[in-house]
Design a protein that fits this description.
alpha/beta, Rossmann fold, Arc Repressor Mutant, subunit A, 2 domains, 6-stranded parallel β-sheet, 10 helices, 49% helix
């Protein structure tokens, strides 16, 4: 059972998500909060797996809250849920530690997919988001031009060997959170949305 906290200051949004997930047996909403401050207080009392995080909230906003969650609760996944589709917002929340970014006009099926994707250790970006990476950067994304560290390459090799984050952590003698950080950095550097994109890029550039 996936435990979920909804962080949004609009009751109509919270109620809408509640209705969407009411028939999804694998997801349980464990709390509703209206801002980042209330979220941090709730996390001291309630255990959760995923936080659905609005960005624009009064008091502590979603960007600040995401950064705090990442520092204090590194195992909790954060899915930012926003109406803003500007690249700067997407890049900023990913930099602050979000595991995914979903637009509020997403279909119910995409919301569920996004939650399950980030819980599985992968990043999720809404299908309707503009490409957050410049086309010029994408065209130059070959291995010789990429500043990928040796450890990131080790992680990439194991990803291509279909190893899970836990398996990679055990093989490389690093923490699970460190593996997730390397995976997220690779996605950003290469300019792809998911593990399949990483594997395809690695094959095309003869890394594996």
């Amino acid at each position: 059972m996936i435990r979920l906290i909804i962080t949004d200051d609009h009751p109509i949004v919270r109620d809408g998500i509640k209705r969407i997930l009411a028939t999804e047996k694998g997801i349980k909403i464990v709390a509703y909060v209206k801002d980042g401050t209330e979220l941090m207080q709730k996390l001291e009392k309630v255990e959760t797996d995923v936080i659905l995080m609005d960005i624009n909230m009064p008091g502590m906003n979603g960007i600040e809250a995401t950064q705090l969650v990442r520092k204090k609760y590194p195992n909790i996944k954060v899915l930012c849920f926003s109406q803003y589709d500007e690249k700067r917002f997407v890049k900023l929340v990913l930099k602050r530690g979000a595991n995914g970014y979903l637009l509020k006009n997403a279909a119910a099926t995409e919301l569920i997919l996004a939650i399950k994707t980030i819980l599985g250790g992968n990043m999720y970006l809404s299908e309707e988001l503009p490409n957050i990476f410049d086309e010029k950067q994408n065209k130059q994304s070959n291995y010789s031009n990429m500043k990928i560290t040796s450890r990131e390459r080790d992680v990439l090799n194991e990803i291509c060997n279909e190893k899970s984050n836990h398996e990679i952590a055990r093989l490389l003698l690093i923490s699970h959170n460190t593996v997730e950080t390397h995976r997220a950095n690779l996605l950003l550097k290469v300019g792809v949305k998911n593990t399949a994109g990483l594997v395809r890029w690695a094959v095309e550039n003869n890394i594996v």
